[in-house]
Amino acid sequence: MVYRKIVAVLCIVSLLSSCYQQVYPTANDNTEMWIGMDEENIYYQMPTNNFNYLFKIKDMVAQEIDKGYIFSIYTGDDGIYYAINYNEDNTEIKYLEKNAEEPVVLCSVEHSELGNEYREYIYKYDDSLFYSDSEGKIYEYEFSSGNILKRIENTNCSVIYGDKIYYSDKGNIYLDNLNFDNRIKILSIDDIYNRFNIEEVPGQREGSVARMSIYKDKIYFTFLNHFASTWSVMFVCNIDGTNLKLVNDVFKIGQFQIYKDKIYFLKYTDNNEGLYCMSLDGKDINKINIDIPYYFYIKNDYIYYQSVDDSEMLYEYNLNEDKSEKCINKVVISDKT
Length: 337
Hints:
Structural class: mainly beta
Number of helices: 2
Helix content: under 10%
């Protein structure tokens, strides 16, 4: 009888263990995004020679939200947040509520020079909105007080994961809390050069973490060597910086997004460009059969993207079907001078 009770208990424990799934914090997957979604709307940007136009698509109808120099958006269930400047003194942080017609200005920060040296993003966490500008400064806007705080400078790219922030100052990766008072270096540029055969110029051990994402307690990042021919080598490590591994060093990787245990990325070589996917260990590389995207965003098993050949057209691609590419909206902008 005692034996049967022990067996029954063990069976229950085994059943509960098999039902348990690891719960991971969420990361700001809107990093560097030009396309985003809430529950009802699709938001996307269209570049022209003069401005970026920001649109909202609802029920297949496009509504112009704003135009200016817009390089990052964040979409949540309550609407869209974005940073915009008009080549003037300040950059405005704006918010468009999901069912509203006009955006409102939340705050403004000092104007940054436009460029691609640093990754710009906006991300909402708890009672704050974080904005990292194109000069590497991170600001925090507090909704409750309306205050805007400059938190840190010279960050190349950054990711908020749970209640922690991970960021890079060129080739090093740091971990900090959101009070920005407990910085820890978890990975150095020397770790990369010492452990892997990265081409370097003697005396110039330089480079930068070009893009970074966190998925299931792992940091995935691309490393760019400015002084050699190695472009955007991809690595992965634990969230404490340990167990650094090489994911891919064959080709240049641009924008990437991790979705359902696969890495989707823009691949650049001399003769072959396009959107590809691979497993988390860098194997099983496959090309997605769509036009070369300008930018892309994945949600609910759909890829949303703009084509390099026609940025006025927004496409969707169903990951569960073959040859399912279709245009869901086209807006013609005449202001291209």
